[in-house]
Structure formats: C-alpha cells, structure tokens
Amino acid sequence: MAKVKKARKKLLHRVLLACLAVFIVLELVAYYFAWPRRAADEIKGEKKTEGESDRRLAAQNSSLERRIKTLAPRGIYIVVDSGNNILNLMRGPENLRRVVVSCGSGSILEEPGGRRRWVFDTPRGGFYIESKVKNPDWIKPDWAFIEEGERIPKDPRERVESGVLGEYALGFGDGYFIHGTLYTRLLGRSVTHGCIRVGDEDLKVIFEKASIGTKVFIY
Amino acid sequence: MRVKLLLVLTVIGYSFSVAGEKSLSPGLKNQLLIEELALARAPSSYFVVDLQTRIVQLKASGLTLREWKVDRLRRWGDAVPLRAVGIEKKSALFAPKRKKIKPGANQERETHELEVLELKDMPSSFSLCLDRGLSIYIRHRPDTFLSRAWEIGGFLRWYTWIPLKNLWFEVKKKPLTALDIRVLNKEEAKSLYWALLEGHKGLIYPF
To answer: CB burial class (10 A; 0-12, 13-18, 19+) of residue B2?
Structure first.
C-alpha cells in the first residue's frame, strides 16, 4: 500500500514537472514571438533613397505640422471638461476664466411603456455657438414631463417655462445650451440633462465674450 | 533563487520598456502627420499616444485639450499601426453603470441623494480594445495595499498571459500589439476612462 502511494506521488510529481516544463517552453516561444517590434521604416508606394528624400520629407512634415496648428481657433473659444465640470474660456493659450459648471448626469430615462429612452449626457466633441439668447424661456421637451410624471401637453404654450435658464443662453446645437441655473449649490456636480449650467456672474462674462461661431470643445 | 528570478524579470521588463528608443524617421512621421491632419479636420476630438515622449493627449482641431503623463510604459507584439485607430471596446472589471430615473421622482431636491454618474465612479484600471489588433491596458501607480495586490495580478497577466495570447494570434496570423500604460495616479486613470469613448479615433506615435 505504501509502495503504491509512493509511486502515485512520484507520478504526480513527474506530471507536474512535465506540465511546468511545457509551460516554460511555451512561454519562451511566446516571448520570442511577442518581443516588441519596431514600426516598419518603409512607406507604401515610395522608395526610400538618399538623404535628399529625408530632407524633402522633413520639409513636408514642417508644413503638415503648420497646417494642423492653423486648424486651432484663433480668437475666443470654450473648452469644457465635463468630467470635472469645469469650463475654460480661452483665447489662444491664455485661460481667460475658469468656471465651475454642471454637466450631464449620464442618467437614463425611459418612457413608461418603453417606447422612448433618453440618456442625459453632455455631448462630446467640437461644436459652435449657434445662438445667443437674452432672458431665454425654456421650451420643455417631452422628457421633462415624463421625468416629472406629468402628461405631455398638446398645447405648445404649456411647454414654455420662464426664468429657469437664467439671464442668458448660448446654444451649441441639437437643443443643447450653456445657460444659467436656479440650482447654484449643484454647480460642480454632474446633474443636468445634457446642457451646461453656469452661475450668473460667469454666464454674463461668457455671453459677452463668446459670439456666434465661437468654437466649443467638450470632453 | 527568487531574487535572481526577480532580477531577470526586472531586466526583461526594463529592456522591453526602452526597446528601440530613438527618434522617429521623417517617413514615419510624415505618414502619421497626414493621418493626424485628417483627424484634426473632423469635428470630433481624437487621442494621441506618443510612446516617445510618454504622453497621452486628447486633441480637437489640432488643439490639445488635455494631457496625461505616462509613468511607465510596456509593450508586446507587433509594431503599432501607423494609421488612425478606433476604440472598439472599453472594458473594466468594475465598469460604471448608468442610473435610471424613476418618472415622477425629482432628484435635484436632495444633494446627498443624487443618482448620477460622475468622474469618481469611473474605474481606474481598464483596457481598450482598438482595431488593427491593438490593445491598451491602463492602470495607475499603486498607492494602497489593495492596488499593490492588483498590480501583482497585472504583472503576472502581462508577463504570462499576454505573450501566450500573442502566440495564439501569431498562429491565427492575426496582428496583436499590446501596450501597458501606467499613469501617475487614480484620478488621472479615471479621467482617461472618462475622456476616451468607444468609437473615438486616434493615433499612436511609435518609438
């Protein structure tokens, strides 16, 4: 009995050793193939010849870098960090004003019955200021009524709500606005339905500085 | 024995992280700049991972919106693609979930009860699956006991599982490039998760 046990133990050890050996060999082969390779130094459709070609490419590269730089806005532009709820009013590399704002909550609203669904994110990417409105009224969309658990009105006049968007609103497309808020204590938190809420004083400065066509970058 | 093994692994790790560091040839740079010009002309933002300067940038119209410093960089496999790549999938073990609004319950009355998705809810360790066989693993410099333990798991995965995965891709004749990017702290990693979206396009500037 003791002999059988010893033999089994020996066999188990051998199997384990064999597995380990296979694993090590496999890893070594894997390391050989996975060794980091450098980007190929060839360009399709073009033969690399002399230093002259390199000089031509270097000149082309400088021109490309300049072209990329010229795409950047020259005057005033707005950069919104939606994660940190910060809006930066910029002119070139100069930060004119750093403003604490409120961006989209990322929450989901589903219409009872499941016909429609809204995701309250602030859109990301590059936009333009498309409209500037003083003393704006809020035309409540369907989701606002659904969220409140109210019926959706048939009369468009019942959708108009005054005084909730502050004194100014700057539209940047698809119904999204940079506007004021009654909930100033929530500035710095992600609580909106996608718009960017700003405190009164900062909103006034943004409204004065930004014009139609001002670039807005949101990330 | 263990010390020797650790030393060998450290040397291997270091050699991978600095493998082939030299300035980019004008030809490669030209190709990448042409790609970047196309990305900069598009209205959406794009990302740039510069392996040489060890910086991740979020850009739009050629303008740098945000930068993240890379604390440590490791890679395996094929050379990085010299064309624009798109993020196909962003995954994390503890991916944040969107909250659902209950119709009729106004949230804004009580600050402490806000059910919103914020930067603090984002994971600090995640992976990006991009097209052209590129995978990017993002983590942060460990600061707590738990994150150090997590780092050991990451170390084992990086030095055992990823090469084996690469071997499997090699057999299937599929490209695979794996990048392991460690940023300075948890907040930086979370903001990277926030900033990089599925569908986002970008470029990797190689060594």
So the answer is: exposed
